[in-house]
Design brief:
It is globular, with a radius of gyration of 24 Å. The chain is mainly alpha-helical. 32% of the residues are buried.
């Protein structure tokens, strides 16, 4: 009898689990500790996407440099040589390249994040992991690509300095990682906001792509903000990327300091927090029903 009762008591002991998967009761329930536990998976995703994106290509990851450089040379020829648009006396390549690199970081992060549910439907329907891992992976890969483009930008600056071109680099370049992170997080937040919409209405993804191309012309990438009529400054300033591009350009190659202000940067930081928090909450809610719509 004692042996039987002992075996019964053992069988009634609750099982202990290392990981418990349960429904999220609220959109506010974002488990940051869970994200940290899956950091190894994030690292694997980053490596997979970085290596796999250019596998069996001739240039490989060097496409991260070839694309912005080709775009820069095209802009320098069309807007500089043909249309004679002002660059405030700065060398054209140095003027266009930082804006293009920052915009590529912002655009790629936003567009790739916006298609999260559609692009990852296969894996989402089979394996559990925190879905926020995928947008974060997109942001990290975009930052890696930007880092490579920044190295290219620095090399070109050195070439111009050797040639004797006057380039006024300021000590504020120490804030370069902050500006890159700010750009990435704005793109991440907006991308997560759009992810649930493009998942439900797929044709809107085309509208988002077109809108990004148009928004680029509302950002001082091919023109300096100082050349825009004063009455339009407030309108262009509503674009959070305006202050980031102008600030980045100023700290690296000098230029018009009046186009950069602390208030503009603070505004961009406020927008970043706003869209990042809203995006995370909307994404957290959308992931519950995303697979039913794909």
């Amino acid at each position: 009898m004692s042996q039987s009762s002992t075996s019964t008591s053992h069988s009634e002991e609750p099982e202990q689990w290392d990981i418990e998967i349960k429904a999220k009761p609220s959109v506010w329930d974002i488990d940051l500790q869970e994200l940290w536990r899956y950091r190894d998976l994030l690292a694997q995703f980053v490596r997979r996407d970085f290596v796999g994106a250019y596998k069996q290509t001739v240039l490989g990851p060097l496409w991260h440099l070839a694309e912005p450089l080709a775009t820069t040379l095209t802009y320098a020829f069309i807007f500089g040589s043909i249309f004679k648009m002002s660059t405030n006396g700065m060398p054209r390549i140095l003027f266009y390249l930082p804006g293009i690199a920052l915009w590529t970081l912002f655009s790629n992060t936003l567009l790739s994040t916006a298609s999260t549910f559609n692009a990852n439907a296969g894996i989402f329907g089979k394996v559990y992991f925190p879905r926020l891992i995928v947008p974060i992976n997109v942001a990290v890969n975009s930052l890696i690509a930007f880092g490579m483009q920044l190295i290219l930008f620095i090399v070109i600056i050195i070439i111009y300095l050797i040639k004797g071109i006057d380039i006024r680099i300021t000590w504020l370049i120490i804030f370069t990682p902050f500006l890159a992170l700010l750009t990435s997080l704005i793109g991440l937040g907006l991308g997560m906001l759009l992810a649930s919409i493009t998942n439900k209405y797929r044709d809107l993804s085309k509208l988002v792509t077109v809108s990004m191309r148009l928004l680029m012309f509302a950002t001082p990438i091919i023109y300096p903000l100082s050349k825009i009529p004063e009455k339009y400054h407030l309108l262009i300033g509503l674009n959070p990327m305006t202050s980031i591009v102008e600030c980045f350009r100023y700290i690296w190659i000098g230029g018009n300091s009046s186009a950069v202000s602390v208030a503009m940067i603070v505004y961009s930081i406020f927008i970043m927090f706003l869209v990042l928090i809203a995006g995370a909450l909307v994404f957290n809610k959308a992931e519950k029903v995303a697979m039913d719509m794909v």
